[in-house]
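go over my protein:
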Amino acid sequence: MSYSQFTLNRLKTDFGLAIQEGGSLYAEPPELHPSSLLSQTLQDYLPLALAINSEKARSEFILAPILGDLRRQIMSPISLFSGKEFNVDPVQGLVGFCDFILCRSSEQLFIEAPVLIIVEAKNENIIGGLGQCAAAMLAAQIFNGSRQQSFLHIYGCVTTGNVWRFLRLEGSNLAIDNGEYYIKELPKILGILSIPFSE
């Protein structure tokens, strides 16, 4: 089994996660304005990525530039991994590849605790990607704890590149934001992605 095979219902059954829906995680999300380089990159490549309409294109032309800009702007150390295998607990099925992993670490050769954000790219079906993202977030929580780097929250995001939906895991409680953010709200998206590095 891998992250992509998990549903929210299976996570509730297998891991006892309590799913909280219907609320807003960020009533007043902070804003982090994109650099001029990111703005120009998205102006050039966002239409191309959406026209190609594959997860790979969205990852390369939209997500990687956004997460790279976040890494450049945040003052604390951030390591960023793309398409990395993240096998944490094979017995429980917490294995597989994550589209993007962000850690509070300067180590870039391998994934080092604490893992703070999991980002999954999807073509269209954001709802279908929530279970996959939540399973990887649970794995990150276990990974951090095994290295004495436990953090109160693990953050996650499922995105088409154009639409973003955020999750937050605290203990066994998984909160899913009831709202969606659109790429035109990029300062809010970057602001939310910066939260784990300011806690």
